[in-house]
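Quick check before the chapter quiz. The format below is the same one you will see on the exam, so make sure you can read both the input and the output lines.
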Amino acid sequence: MSEKTGLTIAESRAVIKLMCYYREQVVAKLAALNQLYYSMKHSQRFNAKSYENIMLQRQISNYTYELAAVRDEIASERKELCTYIKKKDEFYQSVRKNRTFNKFKDLKVDDSQLVFEYPGEIKAKDEK
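Here is the expected output.
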């Protein structure tokens, strides 16, 4: 593989790790907010229409949507990385195939002179 390919793969993996770290941060914040809401809800003076409760519910909702978005982004980034690696592998396989074909093409041996000893090796008849 080329250096550019390796750097692209490394960058993609780093982005995935960064998004996973961010996801963990969002999960922790969401858990703290849910715990706060649970504590407030079981209080005797809980008012469902209070400004604090409405803002808390809004924050919980925002973090829930953000968590879903981050999970989707991680999944799509992993899928893109997998697709990129597969396409690069197919490309390098075709390059290797063409190089071996050109190697035998440069031998200048006709098909009548070729004898197959076993799969994968081609020898000329007079080289036996």
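If your answer matched, good. The beta strands are 114-118, 121-124.
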